[in-house]
C-alpha cells in the first residue's frame, strides 16, 4: 500500500463482446462500434468507500470509455489486438492495487473480463481480485472456478465491500 493507504482499482470492462472489439481494433470490420456506458454502481461504490474509509486510494479504469476515445480518431489509430490493448491499459495504471474490483454488468463482457483478470493478476500477483455486478451475481459459481478470482460479491456491495476492505486493511 502507498503511504499506509489501501489502493483499490475498479475495472469496468466494455459491454461489447471480446470478438467484436478485437475485430474492430484489428481493423477487420467496423460492423459494431464499442459502446460506452456510465457505470453508476462503481461511482456510487467509490463515493461510499471514500466516505467510510479514511485511508483509501481509488482509481477507475473504464475500458469502454477508452475504446470510445479510439473511435474518435479510428482512421489514424494503428491496428492492435484487443489483448494488447488491454495489456496497454493495465500497464498505464500508475499504482499497485491491493484490491482489484471488476464490475461485470453484462454477460457479453465475460470473455474480456476473464482476459483482464489474467492480465492484472500477472502484473500484480499479490492483489486480491473481486468480481461484482449483475453477471457476477448470477454466475458467481463459474467466476469462482477461475484460478485468479479470489471473491465474488453478490448484490449491492456498498456495505459488504466496505467491511471487506476494513478487514483487509488490518491483515
Please explain how this structure is put together:
With about 170 residues, this protein is α/β, with parallel strands linked by helices. The model has no long low-confidence stretch (mean pLDDT about 90). Strands 2-1-3-4-5 form a 5-stranded parallel sheet, sandwiched between helices. It is about 45% helix and about 15% strand. The two termini are about 10 Å apart.
Annotate the secondary structure layout.
Elements: E1 6-12, H1 18-25, H2 40-52, E2 56-62, H3 63-71, H4 82-91, E3 99-103, H5 110-123, E4 128-132, H6 134-138, H7 140-143, E5 151-152, H8 158-169
Parallel strand pairs: 1-2, 1-3, 3-4, 4-5
Give a quick set of tags describing it.
171 residues, alpha/beta, five-stranded parallel beta sheet, 8 helices
Q: Over the alpha carbons, how many angstroms does the gyration radius reach? A: 16 Å
Gap from first CA to last CA: 12 Å
Q: What's the helix-strand series?
A: EHHEHHEHEHHEH
Mean pLDDT: 88
* Strand arrangement in the largest pleated sheet: 2-1-3-4-5
Strand content: 15-25%
Query: What best-fitting shape do the alpha-carbon axes yield?
Result: globular
Helix content: 40-55%
Structural class: alpha/beta
- Poorly predicted ranges (pLDDT <50, ≥5 residues)? none
Please outline the major beta sheet: 5 strands, parallel
Number of beta-strand segments: 5
Counted by DSSP, the helix tally is 8
